[in-house]
Design goal:
Blueprint (H helix, E strand, L loop, with lengths): L6 E2 L2 H4 L3 H12 L1 H4 L4 E8 L2 E14 L5 E7 L6 E2 L4 H14 L26 H5 L18 H4 L12 H15 L3 H13 L5 E2 L7 E5 L9 E4 L5 H5 L9 E3 L1 H12 L3 E2 L2 E2 L3 H8 L7 E2 L2 H4 L8 E5 L3 E6 L4 E7 L13 H13 L2
Parallel strand pairs: 1-3
Antiparallel strand pairs: 2-3, 2-15, 3-4, 5-9, 6-9, 7-8, 10-11, 12-13, 13-14, 14-15
Length: 359
């Protein structure tokens, strides 16, 4: 049975405590003044009710690392943000859609579809290992120095156990594109953003997006200046901006709608994104693409099977099937420059406010 779509609602309609939600908004409002981010948008709700949708700070605050913008641009609820690694969630959803269609199997070798990937001892790595970051691949490679994917094909697995790696999603992208004959941006548009009406979710360039970093060596891996509307991730930029690990831009409302579809079991307002068992593959521990029960950014929502992800630019998403709640926090923690010591404390604080709000 189709579930109701996401609609604005009150705390009372959603069964949430208004005081805790006010505390959530106040905590987010304080973040730009604290210097944690240039600006932020938060969206939160329960069931079909979007109860919080709030913007604070600036979409553009700095012209460079040291020079304030002559005409700062306030953040609004409709401001698109560079999602960074939240892109991985869309790639994972498309992968599970292809599993449903039998395009490939979770436990067959990736090399069965991308033969060049099987070099350097990788011939037994499977899509499941890519999606759970257990392939043994290192976190990243220097594509930003002018190398193409040949660098990935020649890379041997060097780690044991869990190792979070952008390379996994680049390899998965190759599987999806080889088995479908279509580019990843088309697969995400046709499989996710189009059916759900996520009109603000797309790969760059996105001229009206929130600015990210004044990107310069040696802190960054490339000299590109102040970035706005083009992908922040240096490797994604070098590979053309459409990659499985980074490159998407979106709004808090669009991501809240995606959360609603997953919390509704994969079908919402008559639109089928996934079968319920496929949603389980994504959200049940250890999660395919999603991570599960991580208190460092999920706060009090962790512990009952909450799933989500974070992104380097300051983005995060958490959905909790136990309470039917969701939280999206989009922020620019790298504006004007990336922090020396990244802090996910504010993400956890926001999530804990939502957890305490549940009646």
């Amino acid at each position: 049975m189709a579930r109701r779509p996401l609609t604005p609602g009150t705390p009372e309609q959603a069964g949430l405590d208004a005081g805790e939600l006010a505390g959530l908004v106040a905590a987010v409002d304080a973040l730009p003044a604290r210097g944690w981010c240039g600006g932020a948008v938060v969206a939160a709700g329960r069931g079909p009710h979007l109860v919080v949708e709030h913007a604070t700070g600036w979409a553009v605050r700095w012209a460079s690392a040291t020079e304030p913008a002559a005409h700062p641009v306030p953040a609004t609820p409709d401001t698109p943000f560079d999602l960074a690694s939240l892109t991985k969630l869309f790639t994972a959803i498309v992968a599970v859609q292809h599993l449903e269609r039998g395009a490939f199997a979770l436990d067959e070798p990736v090399a069965a579809h991308v033969p060049e990937f099987g070099a350097a001892g990788k011939r037994h790595i499977t899509p499941r290992q890519l999606l759970t970051h257990t392939s043994g691949l290192r976190p990243e490679l220097p594509f930003h120095d002018g190398h193409g994917l040949d660098l990935l094909w020649a890379e041997p697995p060097t780690r044991g156990g869990y190792c979070y790696s952008d390379l996994n999603l680049l390899a998965l992208q190759a599987v999806l594109e080889r088995t479908s004959g279509q580019r990843l941006d088309t697969l995400i548009r046709d499989g996710v953003t189009g059916p759900l009406g996520l009109t603000s979710t797309r790969f760059g360039p996105v001229p009206g997006a929130a600015a990210t970093e004044d990107q310069r060596r040696p802190v960054a891996k490339a000299d590109r200046g102040m970035l706005r509307g083009v992908v922040h991730d240096e490797n994604a930029h070098a590979l053309g901006g459409v990659t499985g690990h980074a490159g998407l831009f979106s709004t808090a409302r669009d991501l809240a709608t995606l959360c609603r579809a997953l919390l509704a079991g994969g079908t919402v307002d008559g639109v089928r994104l996934l079968a319920p068992e496929s949603v389980g593959l994504l959200l049940d521990a250890p999660g395919l693409g999603f991570v599960v029960d991580q208190p460092w950014f999920m706060g009090g929502l962790a512990g009952r099977g909450a799933a989500g992800h974070t992104g380097f630019t300051g983005t995060s998403l958490v959905l909790d099937r136990a309470t039917d709640t969701f939280l999206v926090l989009l922020a620019t923690t790298v504006h004007p420059v990336r922090p020396r010591h990244p802090d996910s404390g504010p993400r956890a604080v926001a999530a804990s406010h939502l957890a305490r709000a549940v009646r």
